């Protein structure tokens, strides 16, 4: 999820598509939050790691 967010941010920036840039930021933030929760030992949705 983090990698997808970064890819969408790059494509949105290069192609000048603000909606793709925004979706990329949202996916990046959600991916980081889920990753941090998994690192603290809290399983979210039955998974400890999200990529």
According to DSSP, the number of beta strands is 0
User: Considering DSSP H and I runs of 4 or more, what fraction of the residues is helical?
Assistant: over 70%
Mean pLDDT: 80
How do the helices and strands follow one another from N- to C-terminus?
HH
- Could you say how many structural domains there are in total? 1
Structural class given helices, strands, pairing? mainly alpha
What general form does the structure show?
A: rod-shaped
**Low-confidence runs:** none
How many helical stretches? Answer: 2
Put the structure in a nutshell:
The protein has 51 residues and is an all-alpha fold. It has one domain.
Question: How are the secondary structure elements laid out?
Answer:
Layout: H1 2-15, H2 18-39
Helix pairs in contact: 1-2
Key traits:
mainly alpha
What does this structure look like?
The protein is an all-alpha fold and 51 residues long. The protein has one domain. It has helices spanning 2-15, 18-39. The chain is rod-shaped and about 40 Å long. It starts with a helix and ends in a 12-residue tail after the last helix. The mean pLDDT is 80.
